[in-house]
What we know:
By secondary structure, the chain is α/β, with parallel strands linked by helices. Helices cover about 30% and strands about 15% of the residues. The protein has 17 helices and 16 strands. Helix 8 (about 150-160) links the parallel strand 1 and strand 2. The protein is globular, with a radius of gyration of 23 Å. The mean pLDDT is about 95. Flavin-adenine dinucleotide binds near residues 95 and 234.
Amino acid sequence: MSPVRDMTKRPMPKQEPFERVRNFDEVALGYTAELAAEEAARCLSCKRPGCVDGCPVAVDIPAFIGCLVEGDPATGIRTIKQTNALPAVCGRVCPQEEQCERSCVLGKKGEAVAIGRLERYLADWEAEQGAIEPPELPPANGRRVAVVGSGPAGITVAADLALLGYEVTMFEALHEAGGVLTYGIPEFRLPKAIVRREVDYVRSLGVEVRLDFVVGKTRTIDRLLETHDAVFVGTGAGLPWFLGVPGENLNGVYSANEYLTRCNLMRGYRFPAWDTPLKRATRVAVFGGGNVAMDSARTALRLGADEVHIVYRRGRAELPARVEEVENAEEEGVIFDYLTLPVRLIGDGRGWLEEIECRRMELGEPDESGRRRPVEIPGSEFRLRVDASVCAIGNSPNPLISMTTPGLQVGKRGTIEVDEETGGTSRERVWAGGDVVTGAATVISAMGAGRRAARSMHETLAATGEGGWR
Ligand code: FAD
């Protein structure tokens, strides 16, 4: 008779809410070896594992969980890294509930296996063993590739091509590498030491990382093509959207991009030890309902705000943020104003934000996204007193690259048009992937796009024979 299987996940040990809102340390503390072993034992090792199909980079999930069951973490982490260069990151921030865990058989009657937590456990276990040995590299193949942007898409392309013998240079506009992992996702969800370790690993493969290098300004894509056989564009979607309502030019009104960058990249939370000031607001409203909104609201609490509101025009069921992060925000005391639309930002007469005028909404028929459309209720206006607001309703790609690269086709909202299978753009020798193609999406989808592009770049460059294009 088979043993009765535990239908619930081992809970993730976390800092207590009252304690964590006063610090920027990581909230989730990670499984212990015992918890990881118990959770791994829940896996049914399905013959046809749906979890692997649900993973955009097809990690062999049953195999790595099997290694944990057998007490062999070294083989477990090697298994993950065959297809995922950033397991410590993905184990922390991937929306597993929408991907691998959604297809887990156990999820039909109880809770899916905590695949992300086990992935994180193995990545952290490896880090505790000391410096990560880079794999043996093949001899250089004489080809040079430029990767523009050092987020998950760029990192994946750089690592994959370096492992195939390419000379890779990664060009990054900011003074630290890592993309949104560094400047967007806060320390309390993704410690920056982890991102630095992943970037160092890519450097250890021989990839040169050039910081403070704005492609399109410092040098154009066409100039890069004079000295490189191919270029990959992984510049993300860093151009914030605003509400388009009166009052958005008041002091105290931020885009999430600016707010989080000041805090994470410029260490605004350590002012005056670091010299980037960030307004210490007492009442903050954050517009939006995705991960970016949750991160902004929880950052505002940690910066000392007494009251933080998420102002969202739909209901709780429609929130696009990860469930885990919504729960964390709720536990920490963020106030959720659902079915609420900001219509006007009002100043104090001296140029500073003082109030927000909002209108109540109700849910109507489903729209093209399948979610019920929010409809305004006339005459339902009310005001919320705040001294800062953060707009987290979405981003588009920055147009710099498309404006300076003749012949590069862009679509709606400035995304670069590519062949879905290969990531190839309308320009010869130029590939693209990640948020710059899809618009704001996820870490793992950016990595998946990077992997497909690297494969296509390699196939194409290998077919050009000796000497290549340069
Ligand atoms: P990015 O990570 O944006 O990296 C692009 C890089 O290119 C940046 O470093 C940028 O500075 C650089 N760059 C731009 N223009 C130039 C130029 N002209 N020259 C040189 N360099 C340039 N996803 C999840 O899966 N889970 C989450 O929990 C999650 N939370 C998020 C929270 C926040 C606050 C944000 C903003 C995003 C979050 N995401 C999350 C989304 C995820 O981070 C992105 O989808 C992912 O980082 C996209 O990767 P990328 O490599 O395409 O671009």
